[in-house]
Amino acid sequence: MNEFYGVLSPEPSELELQNRALARKAAREGFVLLKNENALPLKNQKIALYGMGARKTVKGGLGSGSVEERYSVNIENGLKNAGFVITTARWLNDYDTEYNTTYQAYVDMVEEKIKGLTNPMQIIPLAHSFVYRYPSGRLIDAQDIAESDTDTAVYVLMRQAGEGSDRKLEKGDYYITDTERANLITVAESYTHTILVINIGGTLDLGFLDEIPGIDAVVQFVQGGEEGGNALADVLSGRENFSGKLADTIPMHYEDIPFGDEFSYLNGDLENEYYKEGIYVGYRYFDSFEKEVRYPFGFGLSYTTFDWKVLSAEASVTSSAVPVTAKVEITNTGSVSGKEVLQLYVSAPQGTMHKEYQRLAAFIKTPSLAPDETYIAEICFDFKDCASYDENSASYILEAGDYVVRIGNSSRNTHEAAVIRLAEAKVISSHKNCCVKTDDFEELTAPSRENTYTVTSLPLDLSAMLTQEFDYSEPQVAETAKEAAILDRLTLEEQSQLLMGGELQRVPAGARDIHGAAGKTATNLLEKGIRNVVFSDGPAGVNIANRLCKKADGTFALPTIPERYNWGILKQMASRMCSTDGTMVYRYATAWPVELLLSQTWNTPLLTQIGKAVGQEKN
Fold this sequence. Notes:
23% helix, single chain, 5-stranded mixed beta sheet, 619 residues, globular, alpha+beta
């Protein structure tokens, strides 16, 4: 970046190309293979491709979740780029026609609703409050099947949500539509191999898998960023192996989610939400209540298999931590290379405080292991993290008893590895309750569950080791002489503006602005020596305008209005807001896979790389 906050060449920069490759790697490491009955890797170069997400593949969320990237690869083009031949152009073209018709009707409706408004800050949220639902496409017919000339089909279920358009418990969102159900039945009956790809930022009810035989493979695609289509082709083809694991539990049915019927609009109260589940969220609930699940937390298949055994477990005590390390031998027992994710869970003794049956304490993702290759992994965690919070004393406490350490590759596939014994309770840290509960409601309580175990070979008795007090104090705020001098020049009201941030739209003289960004720090305090910092609100990448025109007077203008803001009065204002008379500046950012997909990589060094890459783009 330079004084233009971008580059002058329209060609992809070296940084852009590097980040594109990194985004592709992250996406394919995050895809989760949920089911595979000899359908993958793909064996036929001809693919029958169906579903709303085939061409309209969703890369990320709406609103603040959007990124103005240079390009995005959908699933159809990703398969084509990998050398596959898509043989269902007729169905896909018909879908495009239906989409264009329904989307234009949607735009016309919204334009009518916002007619007469002149304030962009009214127009944008109102326009986005009307949610467009993608069509399911027409029914797949005999001609589609015959013309496809293949034994392999890929069907892409897609949903879109984001800022201003939450998910709904209805057909076309959390449930499949009647057309989707009929098409999945047709595809499963007509092709030898049927692969279902789920292109959704969360999940949906997968109960239809029990009702429709013949769906041979299921892939949790989530939202793969700009390289999602290419990354999916990498793993479907077998050129790369699946190594993603679920970062959430997929329940049998929505009704299995605790208090799911009281969420958002379902209970008629959009002003108040009562989180009655307490600590029993996700796998903590399903494991503690022994609920059957469709796919457990941490689950994910591979094209190969792995075995592991615990070699040792050791603990020590420092002034600030109680590190516990398990050494595990992992062996690739299959026929292709792959990576495994080992997860370490701890079951705390059931004492007087709420405790889940087990909590994830540590994990490690191996490097790619060749067939028969063995890797020695060290999985480490701080035993202090096994403490529970006691509201009455406002302290974290390790209760007395046996803490069972389990290691496996999902929350439902673990083996006892060690037992950590504590003879008496230990207070880890003391605090004070700042935000006490103001409304009276009861939190969920798990049934008593005996913490049984059989392991005896690796007992770790910390009773005699945990004797000293741990170093802990409430964080102290210290200011430098420079900071003190600046704050002394500010009135109390001006100091409060440091916490409020700058105005979203107005940019005072001398303040820096970046078109497309959504936040600023303290635009009214420039004369007091407080610099203005501009923020981007894109959680999937740097969310700023991808092109600008620097005019002769030194100001910047948009060459065009982004489509998502091209509504009503904004269209009429375009001639004044936009210009191409000057120097074009290019600021294409990377559209990264969404956070859920990144978390499914379970690859912390990779996520560190992505964090640094996002920082480079922002600079």
